[in-house]
Amino acid sequence: MNNPLEYFTKSILHSSAQIMLQTNSVAGILFLVGIGINSMMMLLGCMLAILSSLAAAKLLHYNGEAIQKGFYGFNAALVGIAVFYLLPANLTAVFFVIFGGALSAVIMHFMITKIPAIPALTAPFILSVWLIVLIIDFAGIDYAGVEVLVEVLPKTFVAPNSLSFIGSWSLIDLIRGAFRGIGQVMFQDNWLSGVLFCCALLVSSYKTVLWAILASLIGLLVANYLDFPQEKAVMGLYGFNGCLVAISLANYYTQKYWFIIPAILFSVLLTRGLEQVTVVALTTPFVLTIWLIVALANVKSLFDKKRKSKKKVIANS
């Protein structure tokens, strides 16, 4: 094992990097900088939640290598960002950050050890935030000026006048819109954050960056074509799940790119569908889309094995 300081530093940076499926310290640093240029409070929440998850993982004697790779910290990082997105900066928020960070590590460990056939992805983050939202609602705690189940918009946002809002956009507007979608993976409504996140992805692969940008653009264009709420579309809220879907599939199915576009489209539609039933979607569309792909791949693999088995029987008879 590395010396304690190196181990600790890598665990934190890899936890940040794993949010977008990277295992690279430089990517982790760039992600943290991307969060910080938009919101220092969210960066604080991210770091505090990571520390909470790492402490829980160490105290519960989870696998040291998995801790260092960031497997127990990236969901916590998202929880920490989400809490400071939802709540004003106070002791209550700090409590939920620490609680949610530790809880996400426990859920992650359960999924890794008890149901390894199902990729955990960001499910621990989703479940942790859902529980926190339930507690907040039950306790009557005030949100930080946002409506969690309906519109989540910055006070300074001004929506376009036209329903087909992209028709009046320049190429620069489209590019910025795509970067905002990438930034929203970590709740950052800032195209500069998206640019830094792309720089982080570029450390590993230029193809990953291209897929992330394409996925965000698809979310924006589909939202425009289907007249989804303009405000959310312009903020990139229909693109970030597609970004995660594209990055995940491009990493794990390197020779089968043909189904990535349909998967991105499905995640966009699923995002809108979950909004319609007033569910706090978060990264649920990403998780459900990947789970569906994995299930279909397993069914296809099983079918192929049976078909080969039948051919062998026929050949031997």
Automatic annotation (TrEMBL):
Q: So where does this one cross the membrane? A: 29-57, 69-87, 93-113, 125-146, 158-179, 191-221, 233-250, 257-274, 280-303
Enumerate the residues marked as the site Important for channel permeability: 283
Q: Report keywords, A-Z.
A: Cell membrane, Membrane, Transmembrane, Transmembrane helix
Question: Sorted alphabetically, which Pfam families does this protein's record hold?
Answer: UT
Q: Coiled-coil segments, which residues?
A: none
Major localisation: membrane
The cellular component terms of Gene Ontology attached to this UniProt record, alphabetical and capped at eight, are: plasma membrane
Membrane topology qualifier: Multi-pass membrane protein
InterPro entries in the cross-refs: Ammonium/urea_transptr, Urea_transporter
Gene Ontology MF: a single term: urea transmembrane transporter activity
Lineage: superkingdom: Bacteria
* Record's subcellular location: Cell membrane
The entry sums up its family as follows: Belongs to the urea transporter family.
Tell me which PANTHER family the record gives.
UREA TRANSPORTER (PTHR10464)
Listed name of the protein: Urea transporter
